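haha ok so turns out i had the wrong file open the whole time. this is the CORRECT one, sorry everyone. sequence first:
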Amino acid sequence: MKTPIFLMLFIVSFVFNSNLISQINNENSFSSLSGIKEVNLVVNMQNGSGVNLLFSSDRIRLDFELKLRNAGFKVLKIFTNSDTLDIDKAIELVKMDNSPYLFLNIKIFLNFACPLKNWLISMDVYQKVKIKQNIKMHVSTWSLSSSGVVNEESTINLRDRINNIIDEFLNDYLKTNSK
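then structure:
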């Protein structure tokens, strides 16, 4: 059986150093960012690879908070997985508030089948919406993710990739809320 050339190229590029980006945003998700002034922030970072990243979830939180405040947001509550509070409990606490919350999820893990490190960065904006029969729930109204693999000898600057995702969100927010 012949393997299509595009599939082989995809696999080769993915194995050696890949960066896949997924964005489910469209005009409707941009408009969902309209008028947001206050947000809660949840940062979850899981490093199961043993890689020394040279930054912590607290450093990411500080970077993110500064960018949000510079863009005009009032940051209400902030939770990271370095807090004594479990991330799931933190999400439950921010859901009690009617304000939107931003969830930044960073995962780095080993691929045990081969000497590669996998990473995933995702960011979602959750807002409380009303659906049928007056049911209100938090749903993701904006989302962006980036993932990839690198071999063990490679170094990747995940902090830059994290900041790029935050900047994408802020650009979409500013496009929607420009005067």
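The radius of gyration is 18 Å.
again sry for the mixup
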